[in-house]
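User: Please predict the structure of the protein below. I'd like the answer in structure-token form so I can feed it into my own downstream comparison script.

Assistant: Understood. Taking the following sequence of 190 residues as input:
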Amino acid sequence: MGKMPSREEAWELLTEFNKEEFHLKHARIVEAVMKHFAKELGYEDEIEFWGIVGLLHDLDFGMYPEEHCKKSQEIMRERGLDERLIRATASHGYGICVDIKPEHEMEKLLYAVDELTGLIGAVAIMRPSKSTMDLELSSVKKKFKTPKFAAGCSREVIRNGAEMLAWDLDDLIERTILALREVERTTGLV
């Protein structure tokens, strides 16, 4: 069993391979959303682990986008990191760049919310408030149905994620909006 990095060590590793503010912000948002869901779903003893998985899920994307979810496994193994962490972070690329299927509830959530937080964030920024605080499910659903809006956020992945979790798509979107509101309240990130 490998080492589980501290939050500080995970951040150092992330910033070693990612320099773009957009990617670092996305990592921090997904980290906070994952911690929110760990708490909400009764995984209190794993909150830090869920957060580190969220923080490091795109570890290789900044420098190795063509080897996404593959190079990260190599990097983490070279540093002796825990296989649970390696598997969990890589599983969000299932069916896209790796064949590691999300199995644990945490992996399924990461798979679903990675894309969904991007979409919800893009909807929020278009609003006069530039905030998730007054964002409604109907606004996100409207943009969800507009393929050209935030085209990089895969609707198929979001739908598949909801299905993996056995959650209704509306429920997944609504719960992720609420998670992002908490993130915005506590960190200021949108």
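That's the full token string. The first helix runs from residue 7 to 17.
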